[in-house]
Amino acid sequence: MTTHPEAASLENLLHEERSFAPSPAFAAQANAQPSLYADAAADRLGFWADQARDLVSWHTPFTQTLDWTDAPVARWFADGTLNAAYNAVDRHVEAGRGDRVALHFEGEPGDTRTVTYADLQRDVARAANALAALGVAKGDRVVIYLPMLVESVVAMLACARIGAVHSVVFGGFSADALRSRIADAEAKLVITADGGYRRGAPSALKPAVDEALDGEGTDTVKHVLVVRRTGQDTAWTQGRDIWWDDALESADTFHEPVWVDAEHPLFILYTSGTTGKPKGILHTTGGYLTQCAYTHKYVFDLKDDDVYWCTADIGWVTGHSYVVYGPLANGATQVIYEGTPDTPHRGRWWELIEKYGVSILYTAPTAIRTCMKWGEDIPAGFDLSSLRVLGSVGEPINPEAWMWYRRVIGGDTAPIVDTWWQTETGAIMISPLPGVTATKPGSAQVPLPGIAADVVDDDARSVPDGGGGYLVLTEPWPSMLRGIWGDRQRYEDTYWSRWKGLYFAGDGAKKDDDGDVWLLGRVDDVMNVSGHRLSTTEIESALVSHDIVAEAAVVGANDDMTGQAVVAFVILRGEHADRAATPEGAAEVQQELRNHVAKEIGPIAKPKRILVVPELPKTRSGKIMRRLLRDVAENRAVGDATTLADASVMTLISDGLTATKSADD
Ligand code: WT7
């Protein structure tokens, strides 16, 4: 494989010798036992069928486990019927656990709400009736564009309850991004809020929905349900817009779940790919729910008295699988928090852990690094002794952050599970099992029991221990995506065309001498910024859609805090080129372009740096050599440039940059 800069800088990880064996006390009580691996290895499909029967309630039991005849589209447990919302809520109430707290909601301003499973059942039933009354039926798509609220969870479950397909769009995405997702899914309904609280102030959401619905391709939307959160003034379209509370108030609290086939679509979630157009990743019901519940139980060692907190927003897959479906299917008690970690102070998370006695925390490396930067005296001011399992997800975790997480947050005892997975995999695939695996700082280590993964070279040959290559999944798994919404060909091309019969994840990986897997970052045009997936091509398209930009190239440069940072190189159109000649002019152009990207995609996609250049490095066939641009962005000597069509381009770029440097830094 081509060695990526990340791979090179992570090389020394493989000489990591620290390892933390599980304590005998933890191992003795752990859900996971070493026999789990042996059981799964002895009969992989039988193992999954057992999980599906143990952890999920079926309306009609299934008799077939896997049907792979339409590969690469899998069918799991296909002749069974079930309902995901019934599994997440009702069955716990029926089992006499209605008084158990499902959600401890904490709003950013400090307002709280305690929601039991019985409360959740009432609300979900009401919302399901309300959706049905608005004409939403089985198979219809509903777009959910909400902050982290109890209603967000209820809205997702209400869709699942009637067999409608939810498509949650992260509240930080722009009106344009929302519009294209509504149009692609041909949604019938949008559920949003007047606004949410962000960094101490109300921040409006509804205007973005209004703008999106003014745009092309959104005529399918008949109604907008609006949750009242901030109470701010909200423009209203009579006949189309309805307050959530009004719709629920008049709705009955009884609702018979719509039993669906195991392969009925549960949700679509858009994620960035290597082209400009986001992909609608499709997940179905039975296999997805099985793997969410299974991984949540074993990877986090969930017990009855645990208080679990996953800090992810429901706008990402982590929020789907590890705030909504996994924990609720397992009847967990969890914390959900609306705001940012530093509002109103930098100890907010640790304060919440102390307040609710959180015992399992699942978060992202970027958050851990930010807390490291703020200093360990902040968490030291709170009682974190309730924590007993710590999870990490979204990007490779560097050993320093891992060690800090373990020592400062985990009191040197809580096992860390570094969990590798993707929107496409639906649930965790590679992770240590607490109580079983001796953990290593920075490695996701081993495929879970039932999961088959490998690291292969360019010719799909399994690399030996100590070798590097591409991460692949070699057998279908229950929560795998069933395709890209409306585009089977793109599904096959993206994931299955590189090597026959192997799922290509897009990540570089290595095996250490023990055969443990180390993830090394993406090997395609996808960036990972603070654990969020962004496409270089998508940001390039946003940049060139601005009048002053002639050409753009985007790279993900290593960043101490966010993992990668978006760095853009732009060529301005003729008459505008002069504007960037002075430091003030360049700063102005950069600001204008940053705002433009925020408008086109969302603030998360804003380039950290925009460098105005006279040329871009291209091969003779016209392909931009991003590798060289990355060298520039990371202040390295530029690597091998012999394949450039015009070798002087890199000098031109470097000289130009020295001249404008003061404007960027
Ligand atoms: C990409 C998937 C999985 C939910 C959040 C992100 C990277 C994810 C890890 C990890 C190293 C990781 C990969 C992957 N990634 N977890 N533990 N170690 N890299 O989901 O937005 O679909 O992104 O995130 O590059 O392909 P996503």
Explain how this protein is built.
The protein is α/β, with parallel strands linked by helices. 34% of the residues lie in helices and 22% in strands. It is built from 22 helices and 30 strands. The strands form eight sheets. Strands 12-11-8-6-7-14-15-23 form an eight-stranded mixed beta sheet, with helices on both faces. Strand 16 (307-310), helix 12 (317-329) and strand 17 (333-337) form a beta-alpha-beta unit. Helix 5 runs antiparallel to helix 6 (117-133), helix 5 runs parallel beside helix 12 and helix 14 packs across helix 16. The longest helix has 18 residues, at 583-600. It is globular and about 75 Å long. The protein starts with a helix and ends with a helix. Residues 1-9 and 660-665 have low confidence and may be disordered. Bound molecules: 5'-O-[(S)-butoxy(hydroxy)phosphoryl]adenosine (WT7).
